[in-house]
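pls design
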C-alpha cells in the first residue's frame, strides 16, 4: 500500500485549493493541484490517477513545496542558466577575425574547419555541428552563387548580345540545374 506524503503547512488546504483554481499557468496549476490533493490526505497513487503524473514526480513536487513553499511550485526552467558556451566573447571575436581571412588549407571555411579551430582554442574536442553553429552565431551565412545556364559561355567582362540568345531555342526554367552545396561560400552578413 502506498505511503502518504506529508505536506508542510506553508498554506492552508483552502488556500492551496484557491491557488489551484485561480492559477493561469498550466504547470503551476497542476503543481498546486498535486499539493492540494496531498494536503487533503490523498495517497500518491490516488493523486497519480487524478493528475496523470507518475509517483516519482509527485514526490519531487511535494519535496520542493516542503522545502521552498509556494515559490517552489510552477515552471522553474527560467532559472536554468543553460550550458556555458564553448567560446568566450573574446574567443568569438577572434573567430570572427579569423573567418575574415582564408581558411588554413586555402579553401572555404566550413563547419568542420571552424570546429577544428575551436578545438585548438579550447583544448577539447568540438563536434563539426558546433562549428556550423558558431559560423552562424558570429554573423556568417552561406552564400550560394546564382545558377548559370549550361549553354551560356562564362562571362568575359563584356555583355552578351541579344542576338546570340535569340538563336537558341526557347527553354523553360525547368531545364536550369541547381548548384550543389559544395559551391557555396561563407560570407559576413553583418
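designed seq:
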Amino acid at each position: 500500500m502506498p505511503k502518504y506524503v506529508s505536506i508542510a503547512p506553508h498554506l492552508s488546504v483552502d488556500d492551496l485549493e484557491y491557488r489551484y483554481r485561480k492559477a493561469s499557468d498550466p504547470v503551476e496549476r497542476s503543481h498546486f493541484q498535486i499539493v492540494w490533493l496531498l494536503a487533503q490526505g490523498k495517497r500518491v497513487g490516488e493523486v497519480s490517477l487524478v493528475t496523470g503524473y507518475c509517483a516519482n514526480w509527485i514526490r519531487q513536487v511535494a519535496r520542493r513545496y516542503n522545502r521552498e513553499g509556494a515559490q517552489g511550485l510552477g515552471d522553474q526552467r527560467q532559472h536554468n542558466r543553460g550550458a556555458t558556451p564553448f567560446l568566450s566573447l573574446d574567443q568569438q571575436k577572434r573567430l570572427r577575425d579569423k573567418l575574415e581571412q582564408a581558411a588554413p588549407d586555402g579553401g572555404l571555411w566550413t563547419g568542420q574547419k571552424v570546429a577544428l579551430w575551436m578545438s585548438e582554442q579550447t583544448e577539447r574536442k568540438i563536434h563539426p555541428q558546433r562549428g556550423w553553429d558558431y559560423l552562424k552565431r558570429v554573423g556568417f551565412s552561406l552564400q550560394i552563387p546564382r545558377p548559370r545556364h549550361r549553354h551560356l559561355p562564362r562571362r568575359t567582362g563584356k555583355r552578351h548580345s541579344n542576338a546570340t540568345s535569340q538563336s537558341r531555342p526557347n527553354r523553360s526554367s525547368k531545364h536550369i540545374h541547381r548548384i550543389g552545396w559544395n559551391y557555396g561560400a561563407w560570407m559576413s552578413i553583418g
